[in-house]
Amino acid sequence: MNYLLDTHALLWSFFEPERLSAKAREILLNDACEIYYSRRSQI
User: Fold this and answer.
1) pTM of the predicted model as reported, rounded to 2 decimal places
2) Do 33 and 1 touch, CB atoms closer than 8 A?
3) In sequence order, which ranges of the chain are alpha helices (DSSP H)?
């Protein structure tokens, strides 16, 4: 399954994982899931 993280979820996953729901943490730790995030390009 593919997932796209928003900025808050991405930052929380690194710095404050307790702010994520149990389901979100489960998804992030599952090697079968592909996690994507958008990167803002510099102008």
Assistant:
1) 0.75
2) yes
3) 7-15, 22-29
* Apex 14 CA angle, 4 and 5, nearest 5: 10
For residue 42 the two structure tokens come to 């510099």
d(CA 23, CA 41): 30
Q: Cβ of 20: how many Cβ atoms within 10 Å?
A: 17
Q: Is the confidence at residue 33, as pLDDT, over 70?
A: yes
Residue 27 DSSP label: H
The residue with tokens 């710095």 is 15
User: Which tens digit of pLDDT belongs to each residue from 1-15?
Assistant: 999 998 889 999 999
Q: Tell me the C-alpha distance between 7 and 5, whole Å.
A: 7
